[in-house]
Amino acid sequence: RRLSGRPAVTLLDVFRRHARLRPRRPLLLFQDQVYTFEDVERRSNRAAWALWRRAGLRSGRTVAVFLPNEPAYLWTWLALAKLGCPMACLNCNVRGRALRHALEAAQATLLLASPGERGQRGGWGREGFVATKATSVIGDS
């Protein structure tokens, strides 16, 4: 029913409405940390700005997301939705040929990952995720 309206109501629309009406209401509990709607809105706005400004991300570009089950996944998803970028969700437990196949199938121009996902070769940044050209990561096996 909600999708039949013009324009369709999206999850981003619902989130923004709740963030506006209930900014201090808890949205997410992760370990011992509570994130309110306001917290997640602010973090997703910062992530969207950083992806737009630093990574040159624009609407319509597909982004592969290689994050574990952590709060950053939520505000990364919201940031991409705010930018109008489709998100290819990659299972962070997949490696090797399966990961290469998933990246190629997604046809993503950018890969977002947490620092720990690079394994023994070192971290990908200090901010919780890093933007990297997907093709350069595919060649890294």
Automatic annotation (TrEMBL):
Domain named AMP-dependent synthetase/ligase: residues: 15-113
Superkingdom classification of source: Eukaryota
SUPFAM superfamilies reported for this sequence: Acetyl-CoA synthetase-like
Catalytic activity: a very long-chain fatty acid + ATP + CoA = a very long-chain fatty acyl-CoA + AMP + diphosphate; tetracosanoate + ATP + CoA = tetracosanoyl-CoA + AMP + diphosphate
GO biological process: bile acid metabolic process; long-chain fatty acid import into cell
Tagged with keyword Transcription: no
Pfam families noted in UniProt: AMP-binding (PF00501)
GO molecular function: long-chain fatty acid transmembrane transporter activity; long-chain fatty acid-CoA ligase activity
InterPro entries documented for this protein: AMP-dep_synth/lig_dom (IPR000873), ANL_N_sf (IPR042099)
Keyword DNA-binding: no
Record's keyword terms, sorted: Ligase
GO cellular component labels: endoplasmic reticulum membrane; plasma membrane
Family per similarity comment: Belongs to the ATP-dependent AMP-binding enzyme family.
Record protein name field: Long-chain-fatty-acid--CoA ligase
Native organism: Irena cyanogastra (Philippine fairy-bluebird)
